[in-house]
Amino acid sequence: MNMNKVPFQKVCEYIDQHLDQKLTLDLLCQIEHLSKYHFHRLFHLEIGLPVFQYIQIQRMKKSANQIYYHHHLSITHIAFDAGFENTESFSRAFKKIFNVTPTQFKKSPNWTPILPKITRRKSSMQTSIVTDVKIQWFDKTKIASLPHKGSPQNLHMSIKRFIDWRKAHHTPPGVSRTYNILHNDPHTTPADEYRLDIATNITKKNLTAENKLKENEQGVELDEIPGGYCAVLRTTGSDDNLGELINALYSHWLPQSNKKLRDFPCFIERVKMFPSVNQNEAVTDIYLPIQ
Fold this sequence. Notes:
Arc Repressor Mutant, subunit A, Multidrug-efflux Transporter 1 Regulator Bmrr, Chain A, 8 strands, 2 domains
């Protein structure tokens, strides 16, 4: 048995990649090479949810992203894409998970109801990341940064403001990189003290003759990610377990590495991100500054 294998990772990846298809218990058991008599119990123990509830939540999460970020898609189209025969049954299922209808969610989105539901065991992640971490030099990088300060529930509003700035200044994700600087942990920080910076690297064309960022109504500021060595861990797929991976870097990898932390927050680079790619195809690099 491969002790570095994260239990049910392959099944979860398959589910996330085939949410628009019929997913049967027999098929999922074949992927994990488990009898159906044991699959349900072990999946529930590992993921924290029965398998078909996990599938339903992943489908609704995908639908929620489509509703908020893809305004050109109708609720009917999104309902059919999620495997529902009509909008009425889709709306009932959506409200059961998010506590609001799809129309209400579009006006005032809140992903919080689904966040605590999907949890993989920390020990599995801690075992698997040790051999995956690489130490790399990160070059000093000037960035245009939008600080989000306040409740994580309102992060989507800052994201939209930053997207507006990127469009106005011709720095889309395909042209410039995307970073999130994680000043603190949303699970241990009071909502009014939470901070996350959304950023992209910039060139001289974004600056004035005095090397200042051009004035803007979105609140984007000139900043910098300092150069130095970083422990880097790449993860593929949604952000469901991003927090657990970051915690595992601190609590498991760092003590074994004999490295010391630099005076700069952990940050991530969105190498490939939604909606440019599907959530299951997203690629994120986690950087832990070390010395």
